[in-house]
Amino acid sequence: MAGGKIRKEKPSRAGAAAAANHYQGGGISFHKSKGQHILKNPLLVDTIVQKSGIKSTDVILEIGPGTGNLTKKLLEVGKMVIAVELDPRMVLELQRRFQGTPFSNRLKIFVTGQFEDAMYAWSSVKERRIQKESRCRLIEVNGVHDFVVCVIQGDVLKCDLPYFDICVANIPYQISSPLTFKLLSHRPAFRCAVIMFQREFAMRLVAQPGDNLYCRLSVNTQLLARVSHLLKVGKNNFRPPPKVDSSVVRIEPRKPLPPVSFKEWDGLIRLCFNRKNKTLGSIFRQKSVLSLLEKNYKTLQALQLSQKGLSENTEMETYVSVLGDTIEDPSMEIDNGGDDEEMEVEDGDAAGERSDFKEKVLGVLKQGDFEEKRSSKLTQVDFLYLLSLFNKAGIHFS
């Protein structure tokens, strides 16, 4: 209207929230809440593929392929790509992307649970027998030359992963911890994984004793794998850009796994890193800790469970997943500033039996010279030695 003012309407809060959570690009909207941040820098994609050390015979697992920017490069260097994608819109996008390409007639789509059935159906009688005995050869079947890309539509944390040699992925950051330990529990063990993580999570993975970010995640991961930082990635290399920077990390599973019960290990590490900057002597003087350990001690004595039976764990890889319950909660690793005396059991507090058990626990710490040491400074070897001393004394953590 001439001479009038145009009134600008402010977007509603609901509309603003929806806009912040969705990003439209290239005809498809990305959901930040689902961790959909697509790599848009082709030079970075090339660098990741190069640093992965992929062989021409490798079966590659990709988690969260999105629109296929990384998938295309992986296809050019590996024998086969198995992509796991939760969003059906992205699965359709992958189909569209490979239409009219040399891979167009070699793209197969599977819903979770159908993949292994299809692989089994295409294999020979001899190969079926091998698959029944061991699930480590699901990819090496007669039909392998009939397709190069398999897309499993489903939740990677819930689906049963097939055999793969190497994992290369730009993952949704909210599944970082459970996915890391799901991969490390996979059998047979893969050669390595090259994964994009949120930078702080990545730095926790590679942190060493004495580092500020050294935590349960660091200890548990490095017990099972060699972890190295490859490169830092700025947030502007993604579409839509995340709020924080990222890092690419290389994870190589240890072979063989250390001879330890992972349930016991996790129990010890949880206690030690609850207040990682306190001395172990003050941590193991806590009433709650002593009560828990004494309960386990009496239970095992009642069951007459021998130490040998506990240490022999023929299927210890089954329990690797217990380490995946690693919540990156900074509050769990920050001391509240309380005095050590507040954590201790007072000398005249308990009956003789409780006092005897306390001395037994502290005796183990003194035997290994651990009483004045702090979890934030200990290595995996130190924790393994400490666990062995406790177990020899009949004290267990699970």
From TrEMBL:
One MF term in the entry's GO annotations: rRNA (adenine-N6,N6-)-dimethyltransferase activity
InterPro entries cross-referenced by the UniProt entry: KsgA/Erm (IPR001737), rRNA_Ade_Mease_Trfase_CS (IPR020596), rRNA_Ade_methylase_Trfase_N (IPR020598), SAM-dependent_MTases_sf (IPR029063)
Swiss-Prot/TrEMBL keywords: Methyltransferase, RNA-binding, rRNA processing, S-adenosyl-L-methionine, Transferase
CDD domains (alphabetical): AdoMet_MTases
Similarity field: Belongs to the class I-like SAM-binding methyltransferase superfamily. rRNA adenine N(6)-methyltransferase family.
Spans traversing the lipid bilayer: none
Higher taxonomy: Eukaryota, Viridiplantae, Streptophyta, Embryophyta, Tracheophyta
EC primary class: transferase
Entry's EC annotation: 2.1.1.-
SUPFAM superfamilies: S-adenosyl-L-methionine-dependent methyltransferases (SSF53335)
Record flagged with keyword Transmembrane helix: no
Keyword Coiled coil found: no
Domain Ribosomal RNA adenine methylase transferase N-terminal: 44-255
Binding-site residues for S-adenosyl-L-methionine, renumbered to this chain: 37, 39, 64, 85, 155, 170
GO cellular component terms, A-Z: nucleolus
Species of the source: Tetracentron sinense (Spur-leaf)
Protein name per UniProt: rRNA adenine N(6)-methyltransferase
